[in-house]
Design a protein that fits this description.
The chain is an alpha/beta fold. The protein folds into 2 domains: 98 residues, Rossmann fold; 79 residues, no CATH class. Helices cover 40% and strands 21% of the residues. Helix 1 runs parallel beside helix 2. It is elongated.
């Protein structure tokens, strides 16, 4: 499987199902700002009918209906109907996800942890959704609600750096410096670097690190304006975009 992130605001989606699983899936699609969703249900729960509103079609989709969408989610139907729906959707070129039936699916929905625009996805390739949920719960303890604000702050910093003329390599380096400066991922090195690879830095490496130490706060001029920003030792100023 190859992981991708889809902008559902631009995709045409069909949701097929009658019960609580379909209602949960619709809630997820709405939370992801999916704008072009049609719900097909021949015997929908009242809550599903209410949530779907004008998007509800009280029948199962035809081949023509499926050909008009790009993504199909199918849940809580009898096995023979799910198999037929999957075959038809694939034949007309749509991507299809049949809940808990990886053999009928062309993609899987991972367990998602959201912190604002920070999205962490956990997938077992459909082999154990329960394990994916447990890993998600574990990560939720490591990435709390504060990460939404952290990402917002870093995005504002990055915008200021780019406005000051920083290139891709500088953006990557300064992002690392900012994360290290604020100790957001202090356990990263101990967690992911094998002990055998932790060698004493060479003189050249130590010198390089001194030159690229975390940035210090300074008042800098960006685009002819004074701004409150940061400056790395020996490096270019990076604006935080707040005028003074």
């Amino acid at each position: 499987m190859f992981p991708i992130v889809l902008d559902l605001a631009q995709a045409r989606v069909a949701l097929v199902g009658n019960g609580e699983p379909a209602l949960r899936r619709l809630a997820l699609l709405d939370a992801d700002a999916a704008r072009h969703v049609v719900v097909y249900a021949d015997d929908p729960l009242p809550d599903l009918a209410s949530a779907a509103g004008a998007r509800l079609r009280r029948r199962l989709p035809s081949a023509g209906d499926l050909a008009a969408v790009q993504i199909v989610f199918a849940v809580d139907l009898p096995p023979d109907r799910l198999a037929a729906l999957s075959a038809t959707a694939r034949a007309v070129g749509a991507l299809v996800n049949v809940e808990d039936r990886p053999e009928l699916s062309s993609f899987h929905s991972p367990a998602l942890l959201r912190r604002g625009d920070l999205l962490i996805a956990v997938s077992t390739n459909g082999q154990s959704p329960g394990l994916a949920k447990r890993v998600k719960r574990f990560l939720a303890g490591m990435f709390g609600a504060e990460w939404q604000g952290r990402l917002d702050d870093l995005a504002a910093m990055r915008q200021g750096w780019r406005a000051a003329g920083a290139g891709g390599a500088e953006l990557a380096r300064w992002t690392d410096e900012w994360i290290d400066r604020h100790h957001w991922l202090d356990g990263e090195a101990n967690t992911f670097v094998p002990a055998t690879s932790r060698q004493r830095p060479s003189a050249h490496a130590s010198f390089s690190r001194r030159r690229r130490s975390p940035p210090s706060l300074a008042r800098v001029r960006v685009g002819g304006r004074r701004a409150f920003g940061i400056r790395a030792r020996g490096g270019a100023p990076r604006s935080r975009g707040r005028e003074t």
